[in-house]
Design a protein that fits this description.
This protein has 118 residues and is mostly helical. It has 4 helices and no strands. The protein has a single domain, classed as Alpha Horseshoe (Serine Threonine Protein Phosphatase 5, Tetratricopeptide repeat).
Amino acid sequence: MTEHTGPATGSGTAGGPATGSGTAGGPATGSGAVGSADAAVALGTRLEAVGEHARAEEALRHAVRIYEAAYGPDDRRLALPLNALGTACAARGRLAEAERLLTRSLALLARDRAEEET
């Protein structure tokens, strides 16, 4: 039996609208939206683990949009969803996009580590 850890995924659709207040056509950035993004990351990583790459990609893109709107494009909290999204893209054969996402994830982590060391 496999034990799963991490936040609960809730009962919505991965690509559905976020909660909170956002601009029309853009992701919401309230605390409810970040919770929605956290759940989308958990769902996306679980879907990726069972080979549901297209559904994982959808959930993870949703999470990345919310995190970018809430924290900015250079925040270290984007590293995990970018890494997972890169893995999903690689599994679907989109290697150039996967490389870009994985490189961005690593750069965020490296920058964060460098800041900790100074």
